[in-house]
Each structure stands twice: as structure tokens, then as C-alpha cells.
Design goal:
Strand 21 and strand 22 form a beta hairpin. With 577 residues, the chain is α/β, with parallel strands linked by helices. The protein starts with a helix and ends with a strand. The model has no long low-confidence stretch (mean pLDDT 95). The chain contains 22 helices and 24 strands. Helices cover 37% and strands 18% of the residues. The longest helix has 21 residues. Helix 5 packs across helix 18, helix 8 packs across helix 9 and helix 10 crosses helix 11. The strands form 6 sheets. Strands 1, 2, 3, 4, 5, 6, 13, 14, 15, 16, 17 and 18 form a 12-stranded mixed sheet that branches. The structure holds adenosine-5'-diphosphate, formyl phosphate (XPO) and magnesium ion. The site of magnesium ion has 4 residues, from helix 5. InterPro entries: Formate_THF_ligase, Formate_THF_ligase_CS, P-loop_NTPase.
């Protein structure tokens, strides 16, 4: 059976039974059908972030080596690991991102795991779910409309239309919308200007939705969003649009979405699935509201950061965690034989074949990710996500390679076997968590030692260009950083302002440590090229765009949409994966 058939034929528990596993009674649920709900944080008294910090659960971050275009199974392993931990008696919940329709109808497919390690009902979660992505798109597009209306109605703020920094959004891949001209048709049609679209998950509204700790913080962050600059180059914020700003109206559209979504895995593990930025063009983790709600309700929270550790895990450490007040108590790095062989120089199609030489050549990619993660002084475990074609010899070799460098490696067969396939990994993680000092103790320890250059506190103290240099050299293996004239000008405008010490969010290809997607493995002798820089004052970070990265993906030659359909008689969704 395929993922959708496994999901459709599974017996799901009523969502109130899943909530009860977290100690949440039905009165604090906002049902979306029988098997999905939002948790009513206000009713539950969990709206104040401080409530969470009292007795928080431990956090396990799932990251990966550099992936093939199909992805290497972080979501799948995260789900399997959570099922495995519950199976061995550890009270565990998941905190994951919700899928974007871009990949669902494009190349990669859904974001609900796979095989017997899925959050379900997979078709509903991958499509409209509880409407959050639509709400975020509407809130962001309302802001864009209010900005152009302000200019049309006399432009009292003196906004220079050529400097508007926000673009309209849609939660789809559509390259033809990257560059548009709006306001055509004469005096009553608005003021003509260049515009374009970003995919919703790349917008600052999505980033703010995922980094806000509560409703008040959400509105504060929204009000700080910079929408453009005046003719004398002063920043204009959302808070200046209209007498009270536009953040209130945006929050109205986001109000219902802000409560985290609750669903279940095929094994009945509670899963909070909420917010969805990608990790190549945004910060790549689910909402801190979902992670902190899960921390308040479970002993262990398994969460995932997108793409490889050079992207999602780095941003989790330096953006998501500090915003949410948490950091990982353990880190799981998903590795697959196919991804390592792909990094060893074979094509995606050949990567599933036995090829010890390519495996040996490509394992340098995993080694560089492990070198990076060692800087965070957390237990790191390699989870080998096994595929049907994998051979025991190559798996044994990889386990031995990891052990030789002092890193525990364990097989995860959750895709094919569900919780059964993740019990061994779950026992390894349980034992690691029992050994690691909890977050508070670790903070005390950190204060006694000189911080690692990649530690959140050390990196936070550096100005932007030094931050970029540390990340490029220490994580990516670059010899240095090259800036375009535009990037240097934009950095110059931020120098001397509070933005100069904000975290950086690197927008980069996920396939290479460099900004050239063809340089696989562990490339050396390269410069990281920064094309442009954008302040996201509401999200509280500065996005640095490298290489040719785009914030509106295109559809592939044969998008997944081509095979999709609905069964006439039953309305069943067909060929979604
Ligand atoms: N062990 C496996 N065997 C076969 N397919 C897998 C396996 N692990 C993951 N997949 C499939 O690979 C794709 C990517 O998995 P996913 O968990 O979304 O990866 P990531 O979160 O790293 O992008 C999904 O279609 C999933 O069903
Ligand atoms: O942002 C990317 O997420 P995945 O790596 O889970 O596809
Ligand atoms: Mg994923």
C-alpha cells in the first residue's frame, strides 16, 4: 500500500482520546472533524509562555545529512522515534511543521512522514488541514493590499513604491508569479509598480507566526515588520499603517490559526503540527507555540528542522530555540545510504544500488555535519533510515564509521515497520536523555566555560558579517564570504542600528554546503556568495540570500499534480503522497 492507502485504512482514535493522553480535556479542544483539532490555549491557560517553562519536557531535534531532492526521512524518523519512545514507556509528543501545498502538488510531496510512520489523516493534513496556511496567506496579502491602498489614497507616509520589501504570496509553486507589475489601467486602479509573489512559507508573516510565543508577541512582531522605505529612506513599519497600525487586522485573520493543531500518528502518538517555513528560504521549524505546548504536556518532544543540519539545525539553535526559550537535549541526525552515495557522486537513480566506494566517498558529508553539531555540546545520535534496497554490509560499514568517530549510530526501520522499527533507536535516545543535564543545568555549565563560537550566546554577540563568516567557515567549510555590491550596501544601511546584531537566516540550496547545488559531499576551496540582504524586523532576523536561491519555487516538468484525482463515487483523494 502507498502512504495515502495506509493512512486511509488505518483505524484512528477520536481526537479527544489523543488529547487525553496529554492531559487535555475535550472542553479545551476545538474539533476539526473527528480526528483533528486545535488546542484552545486560552481555555487551557497556556497562553503565557512562562507557564510552559515551569516543568518543560525535554526536546529532541531531528536533522539530517545533506538530502537528495526526495528528502531523507527526517519527518518519517521523527514520527517513528516518537512512536518508539511511547512504545517503551516514555511519554512523548511530536511537534512538526504543517505541509505547504507547494511541494504537495510539486516535486517532493507531502510533509506527513511515510509508510508506517505517518501523522494522519495524511490527505487532510497535506491539503487544507485546519486552514492555517490559507489564514497566513490572507493576513500577508491583506498587508500588501493595505500598503498599496495607502499609496493610492495619497501616500501620507511618503512611501517610495520602488522600495516596498513585501511581496504578495500564495501557497503554491508558480514561477510565473515571481515578477509582476501591478496597478495598471489608469488613475482609479492604484499606483503602478513592480511586485511579485513569494510562496507563503517564505513570508515574514509565516516566520512571525512561528516565532511568536503568544497573541501579544504576535502583534508586537507584526507591528515591527518593515514594509518599505520613504523617499528619504526611512523604514516604514506595519505599525505606522493607519492610526493603530495594520497588525490588529492581520491578527484578526491569524487569530484562530494561532492555536496549535493536534493530530495523531498511526500508533496514536499525539502530534502538534503547526506552522510551516521551509529551511532553505526561511528558518525551517514549526511554531514555538506548538513546541512549548508539547513541552508543557509531555516528558519528551520530538521536533524536526528542515533539510540538512547546515540549514534547519543551525537555525533551530540560533533562531527558533532562543525565540522559544528552549534548546535540544539531544540531536538525531538522519542519514541514508542513498544520500551519502549521492554525495559520493552517483546519480539519484543509481543511489539505491550497492556501491561501497560511493558510500565511502560520500560519508564526508555526514562527517562535516557531525563536526558542526559537535559545537553544540549535546548528545548526537545518527539514525540510519533504512530503505528496502539497503544491504546489511553497507549499513554495518556506516555504523562502524560513526562508532570510529565516537558517535552512536542506530538503525531506524520505522517507514516499513512503524514503532517496531524504531524501538532500538528509542532506547538509545531514552538512555541519552537520562544522561544529559537538563536545559537549566546546561545553561549554568555554559556560563562557567568560554562559549563555543557557534554557541547561541557567542554567535548572538557578533555583528552580521562576522556571524555570516563564522557560519560559512565553521559549518559550511567555506574559505570566506563574497558580497555583491547590493548586499554590501544593504549591510551598510544596517550597520550602527540594532539590526546589526540580529541573528542571520541563510537562504541557501539544501543540496550543498556551498551555494552551488552541484558541489556535493564536503566541498572545499569555495567562497559563500551573498547576493542580497533583507531585514525581517518582525521575525527578528536578517535573511542573507546566497547564490541563486528564490522564494517562489517553480513546478517540475512532471508535477505530482498530474497524477492526482478524486474518486467520483467516494470523494477519496487519489495519488497524493
Ligand atoms: N525508509 C524509507 N523507505 C522508503 N521511503 C521513505 C523512507 N523514509 C522516508 N521515505 C519517503 O521519502 C520521502 C521524504 O520523507 P520525509 O520524512 O518527508 O523526509 P524529510 O522530512 O527529510 O524531507 C517521503 O515520501 C517518505 O515517504
Ligand atoms: O524545509 C524543508 O523541510 P524538509 O527537509 O522536511 O523537507
Ligand atoms: Mg520533513
Amino acid at each position: 500500500m502507498n502512504d495515502a492507502e495506509i493512512s486511509a485504512t488505518a483505524t484512528l482514535q477520536p481526537i479527544h482520546a489523543i488529547a487525553e493522553r496529554l492531559g487535555v480535556s475535550a472542553e479545551h479542544l476545538i474539533p476539526y472533524g473527528y480526528t483533528m483539532a486545535k488546542i484552545d490555549l486560552t481555555g487551557l491557560g497556556l497562553t503565557d509562555n512562562a507557564d510552559v517553562q515551569r516543568s518543560p519536557g525535554k526536546v529532541v531535534l531531528v536533522t539530517a545529512c545533506s538530502p537528495t531532492p526526495a528528502g531523507e526521512g527526517k519527518t518519517t524518523v521523527a514520527i517513528g522515534l516518537a512512536d518508539g519512545l511511547n512504545r517503551i514507556g516514555v511519554n512523548t509528543a511530536l511537534a512538526l511543521r504543517e505541509p505547504s501545498l507547494g511541494p504537495v502538488f510539486g516535486l517532493k510531496g507531502g510533509g506527513t512522514g511515510g509508510g508506517y510512520a505517518q501523522v494522519v489523516p495524511m490527505d487532510k493534513i497535506n491539503l487544507h488541514f485546519t486552514g492555517d496556511l490559507h489564514a497566513i496567506s490572507a493576513a500577508h496579502n491583506l498587508l500588501c493590499a493595505l500598503v498599496d491602498n495607502h499609496i493610492h489614497q495619497g501616500n501620507q507616509l511618503g512611501i517610495d513604491p520602488r522600495t516596498i520589501t513585501i511581496k504578495r504570496c500564495v501557497d503554491l509553486n508558480d514561477r510565473t508569479l515571481r515578477h509582476t507589475v501591478i496597478g495598471l489601467g489608469g488613475r482609479t486602479q492604484g499606483v503602478p509598480r513592480e511586485d511579485g509573489f513569494e510562496i507563503t512559507v517564505a513570508t515574514e508573516t509565516m516566520a512571525i507566526f512561528c516565532l511568536a510565543t503568544d497573541r501579544k508577541d504576535l502583534k508586537q512582531r507584526l507591528s515591527q515588520m518593515i514594509i518599505g522605505y520613504t523617499y528619504d529612506q526611512k523604514p516604514v513599519t506595519v505599525g505606522e499603517l493607519g492610526p493603530e497600525g495594520a497588525q490588529g487586522a492581520m491578527a484578526v485573520l491569524l487569530n484562530d490559526a494561532l492555536d496549535p493543531n493536534l493530530v495523531q500518528t498511526l500508533s496514536g502518538t499525539p502530534a502538534l503540527v503547526h506552522g510551516g517555513p521551509f529551511a532553505n528560504i526561511a528558518h525551517g521549524a514549526n511554531s514555538v507555540i506548538a513546541t512549548n505546548t508539547a513541552r508543557a504536556l509531555a516528558d519528551v518532544v520530538i521536533t524536526e528542522a528542515g533539510f540538512g543540519a547546515d540549514l534547519g539545525a543551525e537555525k533551530f539553535m540560533h533562531i527558533t530555540g532562543p525565540a522559544g526559550g528552549f534548546s535540544p537535549d539531544a540531536i538525531v541526525v538522519v542519514a541514508t545510504l542513498r544520500a551519502l552515495k549521492y554525495n559520493g557522486g552517483v546519480s539519484v537513480d543509481e543511489a539505491n544500488q550497492v556501491n561501497p566506494e560511493a558510500l565511502r566517498d560520500g560519508v564526508v558529508n555526514l562527517d562535516r555535519h557531525l563536526d558542526h553539531l559537535a559545537h553544540y555540546d549535546r548528545p548526537v545520535v545518527v539514525a540510519i533510515n533504512t530503505f528496502p534496497d539497503d544491504t546489511q554490509e553497507e549499513i554495518t560499514w556506516l555504523i562502524g564509521h560513526c562508532q570510529a568517530r565516537g558517535v552512536t549510530a542506530e538503525i531506524c526501520a520505522a517507514w516499513g515497520q512503524g514503532a517496531d522499527g524504531a524501538e532500538a533507536l528509542a532506547r538509545v535516545i531514552r538512555d541519552q536523555l537520562q544522561q544529559t543535564p537538563h536545559q537549566q543545568h546546561r545553561r549554568e555549565q555554559a556560563e562557567q566555560h568560554a562559549p563555543d563560537p557557534l554557541s547561541p550566546q557567542a554567535l548572538a554577540g557578533l555583528p552580521l558579517q562576522e556571524k555570516i563568516s563564522v557560519i560559512a567557515r565553521t559549518i559550511y567549510g567555506a574559505d570566506g564570504v563574497k558580497y555583491s555590491p547590493a548586499a554590501l550596501k544593504q549591510l551598510g544601511e544596517l550597520a550602527g542600528t540594532p539590526a546589526e546584531y540580529l541573528p542571520v537566516c541563510v537562504a541557501k540550496t539544501p543540496f550543498s554546503f556551498s551555494d552551488d547545488r552541484t558541489k556535493l559531499g564536503a566541498p572545499t576551496g569555495f567562497q559563500l556568495t551573498i547576493q542580497r540582504v533583507r531585514l525581517r524586523a518582525g521575525a527578528g532576523f536578517v535573511v542573507v540570500y546566497t547564490g541563486r536561491i528564490m522564494t517562489m519555487p517553480g513546478l517540475p516538468k512532471h508535477p505530482a499534480a498530474e497524477a492526482m484525482d478524486v474518486a467520483d463515487s467516494t470523494g477519496e483523494i487519489l495519488n497524493i503522497f
